[in-house]
């Protein structure tokens, strides 16, 4: 491996190369003092370079250990086990949960897009509430971070959805324990509201900043199980002339979000807008931010109008098959289309 | 927050100086580069850059609020919990109290349906004294189509609130609170918006009405980029006006007849299904400003007329399910025929029908 691939400053790199240290292996058996003298830098800096180099070099070496063959790797079997124990966030629409394999999965980045007014924000709010359903009702008992870039977050609506959710839990309670005395669900809509952390973002710089800061924020605030960005697109669609820069920044952001999802076992929901694209002789709808962005998310769900109803379509997912399901936006939130099935599906 | 100076963020002196030496002065400059680009440019190690970027991020990130504190703040600090009642009972109930503060509410519909009537009524409502359920403030009315009629506004006022307008001098006081701007070119319109921004900060403004947005911005016809860019600027600007001054902003939008036969579809939708797509709409009308604009508005009210009746439909709102109300226009302005809305599940909530408008 070449020295030029090391994440060190340009001047150090130049000094290494001009002093003849071209490959990383040439750095493997050298003392910091020696290197410092050769390069004419301080011993501290030399130690830093050697540390970086040994980390980098270590990746290629195979150190047999009882745990794993390659450090940091995980066997597919372990992953399967972990995936099974991982809980999902219900969407409150049984049909949609079915095609998603039980709900929005944690540890993954899910993008949800659709035309204006289809119910993206509604679904976002619903998920921010549903993540807080207590464990005994099949929920995650988590908290939510809501990053609002468009100003479309309506706190009155959150209250309505929370109240409907509590009512559903009460119904569920009496349904399961018919013979037992009814147990009171001692939850208030305001408790739900207190567990939603809301960030209002007014520029793309702030959007990048908040995503950089989230890692610290989440480790300080326990139990955050969902991060909702509504929408990822808005500022990046307005203020950009340099498309290459936009792609780089979006790519970096997607990586950080994916890392968050893995590290804290939480679901990341990105809401996206639509745009029209000319292909095959006609204009077609597609999600915004272009083709390279479409690789950034693990799952992609498109909400669309079909015939007389709203449908959700799984456009991309590594684990579940592509399918569509109808859903409805009601006064109580996102629900099944059929009116006889209004109860939330709880796992 | 984006333009916060790095030199004032309390970073270690050594690293702050390096940022300054490379002409990276604000958070925006720093965060517009990836961490690898920064190591290259600043000539320091990745670890230092990562630490610096994370502290810059933390400082330039706006503070969070919980949804609960947000709700309490609205309840306590704002008149009527942040809503301008339209006095149309059913609609107010669906909107949790009326036109919300801080976001853009759009009225879209064919010519002559009553958009301007609605705007006039809202302007009056906002200027009424709070003892009568108004917001007791000034209204800015940007009239790009020269359709504002003071006579009609007073007429609506006299008929809907006779008790106020019979008081001597009240009509003058109410009408005096409504400031009308009539820009005629896109440039003037942009200047108008700038002026509005300044006066919003100084005066007691309670409502901004733009009637209509489409007249100036989409006057120059053309597909794609060239039209979206100026609109993009106006869009963000108006949104931020609404947001920072916490006032309701009402914007009207015109309609165009749709050039294609079908609404747009995604590539995964079966093309044969398109044939079954209900084509019962008598005329294909779509909102004049395209998809990016529709994403930017928080509430879209569609006004249409179908089989001799006028409907007002809540086509986009994150507060309520889609509902439609029948309405009529009389001497006292716009009024609902029934306060119970018709819940609509299908895509007809977005359709705009222009049939039989007189």
Cα-atom Rg of chain A, whole angstroms?
25 Å
CATH superfamily of the largest domain in chain A: P-loop containing nucleotide triphosphate hydrolases
- Biggest interface, CB < 8 A: A-B, 87 and 81 residues
> Helix content range of the residues of chain B, please?
40-55%
**Can you tell me the CATH architecture of the largest domain in chain B?**
3-Layer(aba) Sandwich
Distance between the termini of chain A: 50 Å
Strand content range of chain B: 15-25%
Write the H/E string of chain B, N to C. HHHHEHEHEEHEHHHEHEHHEEHEHEEEEE
The name of the CATH architecture of the largest domain in chain A is 3-Layer(aba) Sandwich
- What's the multimeric state? heterodimer
Q: What is the count of helical runs of chain A?
A: 12
Distance between the termini of chain B: 51 Å
Structural class of chain A: alpha/beta
Looking at the structure, the CATH topology of the largest domain in chain B is: Rossmann fold
Helical fraction of chain A equals 25-40%
Might you state the CATH topology name of the largest domain in chain A?
Rossmann fold
Instruction: Give me the strand/helix succession of chain A.
Output: HHHHEHEEHEHHEHEHHEEEHEEEE
Number of strands of chain A: 13
The global form of chain B is: globular
Give a quick precis of the structure.
The complex is a heterodimer of chains A (347) and B (358). Chain A has twelve helices and 13 strands.
Keyphrases for this structure?
heterodimer, A: about 350 residues, alpha/beta, DNA polymerase, domain 1, Rossmann fold, 2 domains, 9-stranded mixed sheet, two-stranded antiparallel ribbon, 12 helices, about 40% helix, elongated, disordered C terminus, B: about 350 residues, 10-stranded mixed sheet, two-stranded antiparallel sheet, 15 helices, 15 strands, globular, DNA damage (chain B), DNA repair (chain B), single-stranded DNA binding (chain B), DNA_recomb/repair_RecA-like (chain B)
